[in-house]
Task: structure prediction
Amino acid sequence: MSTANVPSIDQLRELALPAPPASYWPQTWGWLVLALILLALLLAGCVWRYRRWRRDRYRREALARLDELTQALYEPQGRLAALRELPQLLKRVALSMPAGEGAARLGGSQWQAFLERHGTTPVPADFAQRLALLAYAPAERIAGLADHEVHALLSASRQWIEAHRVAV
Result:
């Protein structure tokens, strides 16, 4: 018996991989142009979203402060200060809006009209009066407010802050 015809393990070679059935590179310029257009639209959408996120920073900060005020309402020593700050918070939000400088002078029915004009949901008819009550009434009168009235004011304030329209 001859050992020359017996294959050995040293003679084995790895098989070459077959070529991919289709190239991932676009075959025509049309697909490349379409990909570039889609990429540009995606980039433009990301830039628009980022600018909107930056523009609404005041809104996020106001909602965070409103959450803090809501928590302070459950503490007896912080209730009065939290209720007094609510009208200030809404005024600061109005002033932070683009072109909201005119809101600084508003009060009474003009302030109510401003809140209604910029809100997407209707605000209570006496909302500005209640805010003025919180800002200027004696502490005893504010302490006598019922919980449901306070929660209605907080709810209306939250809705207005979250969804007010900003004319740019």
Observations:
- Helices lie at 29-55, 57-72, 79-96, 109-118, 127-136, 139-143, 147-163.
- DSSP finds seven helices and no strands in the chain.
